[in-house]
Amino acid sequence: FNRIADLFIAKATMKLVILLWGDKSELSREVLDKVSVFHYQEIIEMGKHSRELLIDSYDARKLYDYEPIRSGDVATLIYTSGTTGNPKAVMITHHNLLHQIKSLWDIIPVKAGDRFLSMLPPWHAYERVLEYFTFAYGAGQVYTDVKSLKVSTWHIEHLFSF
């Protein structure tokens, strides 16, 4: 995160970062002074008490007048791997993202409580869509990689036992 944090801060009006893993103490003080950083689990806990806590945590209401979201507005950025140069941001619109989520629903009817096993990194385009898909329908997601997941019954049962 520290590697691209300066780019994000310089180029965007980012006010909030949500960590899926890692320790906030590993982030540089300079980054933490400019951006509110939360672990995903902290966000979940805040949401249990009030959806407004997250917004109030960085006084967004005092800073901005929010405009309605349009389907052509950017919903998320996905960065390319940078194999042919510097990584580049790919803008995914709300329309594009919702179309992909609906298309997945047509193929994979998911229900709340289902779990998905993913071996793609969260910054991968397919993974990003799957994350939004599972979260939109109340499903869970388990992350691993090929090295960590030996194809054995024990590992698979262990991943889905919590």
UniProtKB/TrEMBL annotation:
It comes from the Eukaryota. One of its GO terms (biological process) is fatty acid elongation. Pfam families: AMP-binding. Its EC number is 6.2.1.20. GO terms for molecular function: long-chain fatty acid [acyl-carrier-protein] ligase activity. GO terms for cellular component: chloroplast. Residues 11-145 form the AMP-dependent synthetase/ligase domain. SUPFAM superfamilies: Acetyl-CoA synthetase-like. Keywords: Ligase. It is an enzyme of class 6 (ligase). PANTHER family: ACYL-ACTIVATING ENZYME 16, CHLOROPLASTIC-RELATED. This is Long-chain-fatty-acid--[acyl-carrier-protein] ligase.
